[in-house]
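<context>
A single protein, sequence plus fold
<entry> Chain with its tokenised backbone below
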Amino acid sequence: MSKNLLRTVSAAALIMAGITSVSAAKEAGDLLMRARAIYVVPDEDATTSIGGNVGINNDIVPELDFTYFVTDNIGVELILATTKHHVTAVDTALGASASLGSVMLLPPTLTLQYHFNPKGDFSPYIGAGVNYTFYYDESAPGGAITDIDYDDGFGVALQAGFDYKIDEKWSFNVDVKKIWLNTDVKVNGGAVTADVDIQPWIFGVGVGYTF
């Protein structure tokens, strides 16, 4: 009797462990939502019609993303965040700089990811995708610069990171992205123009919840 009971309890424990393992793992059909704090570090360079370069400040903002698992290993992620940057014209030869105002960036990014260990507690991944950046709320600094305009455009993104399981639904996430962004800038209706490469590094830390 006791042996049969022990076998029954052991079998039930193994079944429950299997169910828990499956529910906690990434698998086809899952939707993983993450909230991150991201640190955006532009790696800027520019060619301007009057010479010199530009400087763009770093920014820390919240980010929200959604990953849908097409298979256990392959996910499609949509990344949503918006940042504000102050832009400065820099003349390295003269050691001078001047404000070009500020601009908001909305760069929705879609990446295709491969997750190396979707069933494990530690699940690293890599990804690549496309980005389309909207520039809005441009604010000219005033004085001689009364108008500034940035062209929206496509970019390319690479990504790497990992999820670490906290429990059946929650996970801890670390993520790094490199996005290649380019925009044409017109100052005062085109009196001054610039071809600007922004190319930010984006470092993120956050939590995820699996539905």
